[in-house]
Amino acid sequence: MLYISTRGQATPLGFKEAVLSGLASDGGLYIPKNYPLFSEEEIRSLEGLDYVNLAFNVMRKFIGPEISDPELFQTINTSYGSFGKGNFCPTLSIDNNEYLLELYHGPTLAFKDFAMQFIGNLFELFLSKESKRLTIVTATSGDTGSAAVEAFKGKQQVDLYVLFPEGRISDMQRLQITTSKDSNIFPIAIRGDFDDCQRMVKELFGDEVFRNEVHLSAVNSINWARILAQTVYYFKSTFSIVSYRDGVNFSVPTGNFGDIYAGYVAKKIGLPINKLIIASNQNDILQRTLKTGVYDKKNVTATIAPSMDIQVSSNFERLLFDLFEGDQIEVCRLMNELFKNNLFKLNDKSLKNFRKNFYGGSGNDQELREEISFFYKNFNKIICPHTAAGTRVARQYLKKSPETPMISLATAHPSKFNDVIDKVLDLQVEIPSRLKRLLDLEENFDVLTDDVEQLKQVILDGKLS
Ligand SMILES: *Cc1c(COP(=O)(O)O)cnc(C)c1O
Asked: At the N or C end, where does the chain have fewer CB atoms within 10 A?
């Protein structure tokens, strides 16, 4: 299986190289040259599988001979072994045709674990066959960083740098990133917002000498392996709906467009998904794009759903490739426009393509708080602020389309945002022991400005010591 860059200037790579490099050398994102397609019969044959076997059967089709079947199975099995016993991704029935897919039963209590545990073990498998040591630099709006620390701590051939926006993630998220004692983990608070952190990572990749010197890699959702791992729970959840063959809808709290893009891939390869609903907080660039066709970058606003405080949704570039029917020159041109003018326009055809598969809606902080209260009062269930953005829009869409089951993704455990939840519901949300024990640990992290040259120096100095 070959992977090509959305921008068409980088050499196509196999699965292993595409995953290890993260971002393509032309600045684009890797996507499969050809997608596998599951027939209806094949889809039916996956219905009864447990999570590990389902993941194996879905992912195998995207991976070439670089990984043997037993190696792949083992990697997947180890990854989901860390999720504990029992059903770790339950789809709960909430109301008439309204469902909630809980994705927060992994080690760091957010859906990021599903992909990050897998990628941690996948990197270990790849690197065990060479003597290389990788430097992974990841930007985080909160949950990616903690999931990455958990997945890579103690791994022999990886140094992990986590860039998080200073003061803009929750206390629990910060503690998860900064309290690891492992010598291969380097948390850095950046004086800026998430988009600054993400830009710095992209700039590191833009410096070819530096990139080669430190063997730079990325595990942000621009990494194809993360998207791939996330497609699996769309299958699992869809199969839990009895009437799924007539189609289901998913509502997905969205920031970097990674999670929802995984749902789009699931649809593309044959899973009967009708609409994918892009749910945003006040940072609603994708909603404006759906409405007007103009992707227009504004400043990031800090909200109570910090993991979605993003204006440049990196994975949207993957969708653009499809919206423009694989025209890489056009994708290149649009990304250049965005870089130069902070905006680009979709043409009529591509906007129509966008609206065919996607619908959207956003909520401001007040509306998210009201949704958290509504959910608690009506269904006796506590949801996190990101999840609330999704369930709010899901209910609006259910009114338009009551016949189709609607599954909302619950992306993080509410206790990760206990500062918000406790005030809204006037209670103390129960904190799982995994989080509670962090409160007593010492934090360690550096603080840097958003100057990328300084960051390079810190990483190079780390290599020397
Ligand atoms: C990362 C995250 C999101 C957004 O996911 P994307 O893949 O960036 O769109 C939503 N909710 C939570 C809790 C997250 O951690």
From this structure: C
Determine the residue type at 283.
N
Q: What is the per-residue pLDDT across 192-221, written as a single tens digit (0 to 9) for each?
A: 998 899 899 989 988 989 999 999 998 888
Q: Which ligand 1 atom sits nearest the alpha carbon of residue 310?
A: 8
Atom of ligand 1 lying closest to residue 230 CA: 7
What is the rounded CA–CA span in Å between residue 48 and residue 299? 46
CB 109 within 8 A of CB 277: no
Residue from 225, 198, 201 nearest 459 by CA: 201
Cα 106 to Cα 43, 115, 118, 143, distances in angstroms: 26, 10, 12, 12
Q: For ligand 1, which residues put their CB under 6 angstroms from it? A: 110, 112, 143, 221, 253-260, 307-308, 386, 411-412
Chain mean position to CA 319: 15
**How much distance in Å is there from the Cα of 360 to the middle of ligand 1?**
15
CA angle 137, 432, 187 (to 5 degrees): 20
Give the predicted TM-score (pTM) of the model. 0.95
Number of H helices, E strands in the chain: 20, 16
Q: Which residues fall within 8 angstroms of residue 384, CB to CB, at 6 or more apart?
A: 104, 305, 410, 411, 412, 413, 414, 416, 417, 421
Burial of 223 (0-12, 13-18, 19+ CB in 10 A): buried
Strand partners, 325: none
355-395 pLDDT, tens digit per residue, is: 999 999 999 999 999 999 999 999 999 999 999 999 999 99
- How far does the centroid of ligand 1 lie from the alpha carbon of residue 96, in Å? 26
112 carries an active-site annotation: yes
Q: What angle do CA 354, 355, 360 make, to 5 degrees?
A: 105
Single out the catalytic residue among 33, 85, 112, 268.
Answer: 112
The number of CA neighbours under 13 Å toward the Cβ of 186 is: 20
What would the DSSP string read from start to end of 305-318? Answer: -GGG--SS-TTHHH
- Ligand 1 atom at shortest distance from the alpha carbon of 221: 7
**130 C-alpha vs ligand 1 centroid, how far in Å?**
33
The 3-state DSSP class for residue 372 equals helix
pLDDT digits (tens, 9 = 90+) for 427-449: 999 999 889 999 999 999 999 99
